[in-house]
Specification:
The chain is of the alpha/beta class. Helices cover 37% and strands 15% of the residues. It has a single domain (5-252), classed as Divalent-metal-dependent TIM barrel enzymes (TIM Barrel).
Amino acid sequence: MKRAIGLAALTVLELPHHEQVSAAAQAGYSHVGLRLIPVAGQPVIHALDAFEVERRLADTGVGVLDVEVFRLTPQTNIKEFEAVMATAQRLGAAELLVHGADSSEARLIETFGRLCDLAAGYGLSANLEPMPWVDVSNLAKAMRVLDGAARANGGLLVDAIHFFRAGDSPQALAKVPRRFLRYTQLCDARPERPADMQEIIRQARSDRLFPGQGGLDLKGLLRALPGEIPISLEIPISKRMEPLERARRALEA
């Protein structure tokens, strides 16, 4: 079975969605990730042209690996996500990327459970991604939410840079039940963890490295994951480079 490799939205975020699909195809990816909900505090770069995205997907044979970003806060109204889920289903996606931004773990467990329930109606799984600067900041916290919600379509998304910046280890990841692991995000980074959280955020959003260029234990990480788990290459870089070249370099690495 050939492993699915996706071009993550953040790697080529300056492109319109349909051009992200074309870039994935031209660079040799089997899948693409689409950001249909902007990250809080960041502008909407391009409006979605779902018809054109569908056309490019059909023309290229590229599939949609995931749709992002479903951010769960104390004010979240789950029903507001339904239109995006319908679009994700229409585009053939299987996975949703979720951030947990609520200091009340009990409330977050309840909210995540309701998100999973809504997603299940569209044939989608909801994957919680720990990041050092949000409330669900590491592996242990993510697993408490997943275990508490106890939904069959609830999953864990491991992003290499967030995983190691949070101080998590491949040994701990190897103990996670395989049913929670549906895909992973891969990149490299400088081995030293910045002391300043703003620098951690800056590197994660715009200054990652191609696999093999940094010091993260990517081999150990991959050994701790299921053998043929789909990989999404999420590698925003600070060096000036055309989006297609960036996508190609990421896949080559």
